[in-house]
Amino acid sequence: MQPTDLDFDRRHIWHPYTSMTRPLPCYPVISASGCELELAEGCRLVDGMSSWWAAIHGYNHPHINQAVAEQLAQMSHVMFGGITHPQAVSLCRRLVAMTPLPLECVFLADSGSVAVEVAIKMALQYWQARGEPRRQLLSLRHGYHGDTFGAMSVCDPDNSMHSLYQGYLPAHRFIDSPQCAFDGDWDERDVDALEKAILADGDTLAAVILEPIVQGAGGMRFYHRRYLQRVRELCDQAGLLLIADEIATGFGRTGKLFACEHADITPDIMCLGKALTGGYMTLSATMTTRPVADTISNGEAGCFMHGPTFMGNPLACAAANASLSLLEQGNWPGQVAAIERQLRQGLQHLRLHPRVSDVRVLGAIGVIETRQAVNMAALQRFFVAQGVWIRPFGRLIYLMPPYIIQADQLSKLINAMSDALDHPHHFMQG
């Protein structure tokens, strides 16, 4: 890239969560391989983000490359309306086989946010088909489900990036998020707010939606598996649907293939995305049970009313099939367990650091919660100078590396996080 390219980027290209008038620094990547990103000036960065948690097998993986190239030689895209193709059938067969048994109907879409939109529409259309129209969902504070309007409407209404849109979004019901930590003691009072909400509004609610075990972009909080079990029990008692947003947690990130497995529960609707294609292409899936699918299909509309243009894109499905075949080889549990051990060993002592309020580790996720909000630009520059790519936000400095990361590469990331804490200008003052 030329200097003029960066000037054009700064002037004309809007990056996510960035101001056009005061843009954050932007670093030009020209190639990526394994767990490293190569910048235009030639230096390499160890990637601790898996490109927003998606590139679980690293970059430029020969198996996925080959699958995409072979599919490209056949067809890059074909509409999914009235047409099917082998890659979509193979992918859906894999998803049905690897998810809990009752989840057997698959709707393919083109992003995680759209998967959540589809799940919400499924829940609403389910009750409409039953002749009991219900318009509200019950969601958790500190939850995050995406940036489109339906997904935003079930994100934390006060503490999220979407508070700006209050008054424009559908009004849903929110309760306090669970307080019992994943590895802490269980307190039955943690479910009191949920019980009260269902008792008060159960006959008007369509579904409960949550991120199982890990609340991601809303705070990187890990909660107790018993809470998830009690949610399932209470939904069953009230006849409510349970939507599990596994977009960030699915495909091994928490140490289980799906986070719901920590609690041994099955949702009525499950959203999948991010790592589905190994970070190669955008693709998502919303899965549901036969009773939910049949109820929707037998309703007044006679079908499910949704259909993205790039639904079932063959290239994306080919990448997903290749990614899932790598998971099926069975190396990921050992890889994730090794990452978890090293993160615990490397981050634990930082609990005593005066700028740290908490340290959390689960599977291939390591989180440092700081007492002050980070200075994003300053901290990003520091990490790049250290030869690592870590993207902090709010009061969180965290890692979600590719599963294939080597011990020395992970050590480099951990050391950079630790060193960053010793510089006051990396944090907002006041």
From TrEMBL:
Catalyzes the transfer of the alpha-amino group from S-adenosyl-L-methionine (SAM) to 7-keto-8-aminopelargonic acid (KAPA) to form 7,8-diaminopelargonic acid (DAPA). It is the only aminotransferase known to utilize SAM as an amino donor. This is Adenosylmethionine-8-amino-7-oxononanoate aminotransferase. Pathway: Cofactor biosynthesis; biotin biosynthesis; 7,8-diaminononanoate from 8-amino-7-oxononanoate (SAM route): step 1/1. InterPro entries: Aminotrans_3, Aminotrans_3_PPA_site, BioA, PyrdxlP-dep_Trfase, PyrdxlP-dep_Trfase_major, PyrdxlP-dep_Trfase_small. One of its GO terms (cellular component) is cytoplasm. It is found in: Cytoplasm. It catalyses: (8S)-8-amino-7-oxononanoate + S-adenosyl-L-methionine = S-adenosyl-4-methylsulfanyl-2-oxobutanoate + (7R,8S)-7,8-diammoniononanoate. Belongs to the class-III pyridoxal-phosphate-dependent aminotransferase family. BioA subfamily. Pyridoxal 5'-phosphate binds at residues 112-113, 245, 308-309. It comes from the Bacteria. GO terms for biological process: biotin biosynthetic process. Its cofactor is pyridoxal 5'-phosphate. The modification N6-(pyridoxal phosphate)lysine is found at residue 274. Substrate binds at residues 52, 144, 274, 307, 391. CDD domains: OAT_like. Homodimer. Keywords: Aminotransferase, Biotin biosynthesis, Cytoplasm, Pyridoxal phosphate, S-adenosyl-L-methionine, Transferase. Its EC number is 2.6.1.62. HAMAP family: BioA (MF_00834). NCBIfam families: bioA (TIGR00508), PRK05964.1 (NF004624), PRK07986.1 (NF005940). The record marks 17 as: Participates in the substrate recognition with KAPA and in a stacking interaction with the adenine ring of SAM. Pfam families: Aminotran_3 (PF00202). GO terms for molecular function: adenosylmethionine-8-amino-7-oxononanoate transaminase activity; pyridoxal phosphate binding.
